Amino acid sequence: MVLVLTLVACPVTTPVETAASDSGEADSGEADTADRCAGAATLDWDNFGHGFVIEHCNGCHAASASDRHGAPLDHTYDTVEQVWTHADGILALAASASPSMPPRGGVSDDDRVRLYWWLGCGTFGH
Ligand code: HEC
Questions:
Q1: Which of 24, 46, 81, 116 has the most CB atoms around it within 10 Å of its CB?
Q2: CB–CB of 115/94 below 8 Å?
């Protein structure tokens, strides 16, 4: 509920959209990132990320997981730095058009968008 209110109340829409529409000569990669970040809520470890990885990833990716199901030891997501170190890989597997993590799914489309807003639009270590 707090998250929903944060999204509705977030005031960043206008400047980000202005930046995106002004960048008409950007190459497609930059344009894609700008499009996906336009209007993005400001999400970080405290208001989104920590809860997200606990709920969806750390059954297998926590150091304390009783059964990692083979999740690689270097992909342990207990701290914000550990997650950000693997941000590109996490986005590729969990926030892409056909995500493969978590293996059995269960993440809503909205939360996959939020995951992108956090790691794709946010700042390393936050
Ligand atoms: C049921 C256990 C399980 C859950 C839950 C799970 N994973 Fe995984 N994860 C694995 C296993 C097993 C592998 C290694 C095999 C593979 O890559 O498919 C893996 C591999 C990965 C990799 C690739 C690691 C590499 O070496 O490149 C990433 C990135 C990843 N997971 C991210 C996530 C994220 C993000 C979540 C939560 C949204 C998540 N996983 C949830 C079991 C899990």
A1: 116
A2: yes
- Residues with Cβ < 8 Å from 23, sequence gap 6 or more? 30, 31, 34
Q: How far is CA 42 from the centre of its chain?
A: 11
Over its C-alpha atoms, the chain yields an Rg (Å, rounded) of: 15
Position 32 pLDDT exceeds 60? yes
89 lines ligand 1 (CB under 6 A): yes
pLDDT digits (tens, 9 = 90+) for 76-102: 999 999 999 999 999 999 999 999 999
Q: Give the whole-angstrom CA distance, residue 39 versus residue 34.
A: 10
Residue for token digits 């344009």? 31
**Burial profile 47-57: b = 16 or more Cβ within 10 angstroms, e = fewer:** ebbbebbeebb
Is the CB of residue 117 less than 8 Å from the CB of residue 37? yes
State whether the beta carbon of 125 lies less than 6 angstroms from ligand 1. Answer: no
Residue length, the chain?
Answer: 126
